[in-house]
Amino acid sequence: MKTLNSVIIEGNMVREPIFKITPNGTAMCNFSIAANRSYKKGDEFIQETSYFDVETWANLAKLCEQNGTKGRCVRVVGHLKQDRWTDSAGKNCSKVKIIAEHVEFKPIPEKDNKGINYD
């Protein structure tokens, strides 16, 4: 049975992207984003932040290295992948990450001479 595995998420990069070339010569770039969600609970507005790891490959990896920077807002389109491994203590571990197929870099907001964003 065919299933759907698709993600579209927008958030800010929480660190500088990490770029490397694999032993077989393929470009790879990893970064993490923070995505905010706001909702109302009773009379109170709640804001929660979730963090997601993103992995890019080939030309997209090069693009992310060139344009990505901590704090930059990005929109990521891709799919989820679960990595599984056994740690040194023999414990089974897993982590879900986003494999990006498209990354859109949002415009960097202009600041006035006092450092205030007008976005």
How would you characterize the overall build of this protein?
The chain has 119 residues and is mainly beta. The protein has one domain (7-105): Beta Barrel (OB fold (Dihydrolipoamide Acetyltransferase, E2P)), CATH 2.40.50. It has one helix and six strands, in the order E-E-E-E-H-E-E. The protein has one helix at 58-67, and strands at 7-13, 18-21, 27-41, 44-57, 73-86, 92-105. The chain has a five-stranded mixed barrel. The radius of gyration is 17 Å and the shape is globular.
Please tell me the overall pLDDT.
Answer: 93
CA radius of gyration: 17 Å
Could you list the spans in which at least 5 consecutive residues all have pLDDT below 50? none
CATH architecture: Beta Barrel
Which band does the percent of strand residues land in?
over 45%
CATH superfamily: Nucleic acid-binding proteins
DSSP summary, beta strand count: 6
Largest sheet: 5 strands, mixed, barrel
Which helices and strands occur, and which strands form pairs?
Layout: E1 7-13, E2 18-21, E3 27-41, E4 44-57, H1 58-67, E5 73-86, E6 92-105
Parallel strand pairs: 4-6
Antiparallel strand pairs: 1-3, 1-5, 2-3, 3-4, 5-6
